[in-house]
Amino acid sequence: MSQSVYATTPKPRPIRAPKLHHATFMTMEIDPMVKFYEAVCGLQPIFYSENAAWLVNDEANHRIALLRIPGTVPPVDKPHSAGIHHTAFEYPDFDSWLDNYVRLRDQGILPAFNMDHGMTMSMYYADPDGNGIEIQVDNFHDWGKSSEWMWASREFAEDQLGPQFDPDMLVAAREAGMDHDEIHRRAYAGEYRPAVEVPNPSFPDRWAEKIAANPELLRGVPFPHAAEA
């Protein structure tokens, strides 16, 4: 009989695991990033300056940090580079989640792609720097049940992404009287697929357009002494 991992690797994990607290992004422009995260996620700055901002939408001191560090330069082929794909925020109920889509849509802020993963329905937005933000709702109304489905279901074992959906079709379905469970069932069956699906799926590359509008970005965030010279 093989030995337990605890016999061969003492204390392989902390007995009291820390909880995820915040994500930090390097950026070249603080203002548009602050405006985006306030609009999409309701994050407001606890501290806000020209070169840094700490944002929060709950009782924590911050959930997103933005740093404009001297020497920061534009990324190269960001949508296809290794690294963090997205950070995620969750609504407690379907109606709040879908209402947020409608609010943002009416402001001209649209998701890059949308997917029913089985355990969640998720809309993915790209921030001004091209970082991904997932806005999700749990389809099981219970993390324990959705975790069990991920662990045990044949569906998730065979396909971890699930079908893409058109969120306006979800809005129409709700207006027709369908509830979360029925809309999820239909979306997961592929009934609400968009006319054009996003391959991979990947986020748009914001940087070609940003650099074309402001070629000075290629020089990077200046060091203090360079600004004074």
From TrEMBL:
Identify the stretch annotated as signal peptide in this record: none
Native source species: Arthrobacter jiangjiafuii
InterPro entries in the cross-refs:
Glyas_Bleomycin-R_OHBP_Dase, Glyas_Fos-R_dOase_dom, VOC_core
Any Pfam family: Glyoxalase
Q: What is the name listed in the Swiss-Prot or TrEMBL entry for this protein? A: VOC family protein
Which PROSITE patterns does this UniProt record tie to the protein?
VOC (PS51819)
What sequence ranges are listed for the domain VOC?
19-138
Record's SUPFAM superfamilies? Glyoxalase/Bleomycin resistance protein/Dihydroxybiphenyl dioxygenase
